[in-house]
Amino acid sequence: MTEAPPPDAPELAGRRVLLGLTGGIACYKAAELCRLLVKAGAQVRVAMTEAACRFITPLTMQALSGQPVFVSQWDARPNNHMAHIELGREAELLLVAPASADFIAQIAQGRAGELLALLCLARPDGVPLLLAPAMNRQMWQHPATQRNVRQCAADGAQVLGVASGAQACGEIGDGRMLEPEDLLHAVTAALAPKSLAGLRVLISAGPTFEALDPVRGITNLSSGKMGFAIARAAFEAGAQVQLVAGPVSLPTPYGVQRSDVTSALDMHAAVMERAQEADIFISTAAVADWRPAQKAAQKIKKDGSGATPALQFVENPDILAAVARSPRAAEGKLYCVGFAAESENLLDNAAAKRQRKGVPLLAANIGAATFGRDDNALLLVDEHGAQQLPHASKRRLAQLLIAEIARRLPGAASA
Length: 415
Ligand code: CTP
Prior knowledge:
Elements: E1 16-21, H1 27-39, E2 43-48, H2 50-55, H3 58-65, E3 69-70, H4 83-90, E4 93-99, H5 101-109, H6 115-121, E5 129-133, H7 137-141, H8 143-154, E6 158-159, E7 163-166, E8 172-176, H9 180-191, E9 200-205, E10 210-213, E11 216-218, H10 225-236, E12 240-245, E13 257-260, H11 264-275, E14 280-283, E15 290-292, E16 313-315, H12 319-324, H13 327-330, E17 335-341, H14 346-357, E18 361-365, E19 375-382, E20 385-393, H15 394-408
Parallel strand pairs: 1-2, 1-4, 2-3, 4-5, 5-6, 9-12, 9-14, 12-13, 14-17, 17-18
Antiparallel strand pairs: 7-8, 10-11, 15-16, 18-19, 19-20
Helix pairs in contact: 1-3, 1-9, 4-6, 5-8, 10-15
Cytidine-5'-triphosphate (CTP) binds next to helix 12, strand 17 and helix 14.
């Protein structure tokens, strides 16, 4: 598996997105968002309010989207001279980013005073409306804004964020627009098929770190990339996702709830607790099999004699096997998926490991050195035998794996 896999198809190839901008300094980030959407293959139409045009020019958005930009409801360019109907008809999704306090108030009240608000109100059934608020923290916290946001959500809009941090006005707090990358992920999620709608998915990922003393320990080279990619794909498939991560330096996927842990014992405790409220557990973590029997309270020092420390180890709990033995799993309410890293006899070892762990599905990494890479290939082993997933990016493999899990769930239509 040394050659790179074929490149992924663009995530949003041919998907029709209407991007709305309202007045706010975060408009400069909307330019980057537009670029990311186009790069992901989307056909992006941009509609701007008059206020947005004071922060960024329609020409900028036209250059980035490669399409004419619309501001006025009286614009005669669309086919039937009805911009508010025609643009909405074309779109599969509306994303307003940034959405100002005033614009959110208009949407909450069902007002349609300018083109973008008209488009939101006149959008066809089934076309999602995503609002990415951006405003000063006091405006965000004002009860009127909070009431309007709740009303928009109750009317079916998805409110994205907000993020917290330094604001253009010099204050610090809630009200920042989500980063363009997160908004792109929100769009991808909103347009993805919902094979795990309403299910709760728990994922363990990354290595564990077993301390020897306050400054040293034993770990492994797991990057966590596969588990994080699976978390993202599960969220996109409509699941509520809890990710228990060992020490890794990866950003939390959009929409995913993350808990960071260090040792196998920490991971065991975090996973066992969350498994009581999960429908699916996917164990991708490279859990250390052993930990030092004792952690020295102070840094272990050389004594000058040349003697090396005699390390004693004890075995860590097998987290996956413990979850698979839990009452929820035994009652068929928790579907467990294991991973396996094998250096030889892949199929036999994977099949034996599946039995030993007591899980219905095991995904074995094909090729030993997958740690840290962005690609992988998996052999899926279940009660019926083995099936190979192609050599692909971990992003693509994660999507395929989620589809395979959804297909196998008890009660799934195609199971
Ligand atoms: N696993 C776990 N807890 C452990 C060890 C492993 O939850 N203490 C999980 C891993 O997350 C993975 C599966 O068990 O889903 C198999 O892990 P792997 O390291 O391949 O196997 P081991 O159980 O460690 O067995 P061996 O090292 O003998 O191959």
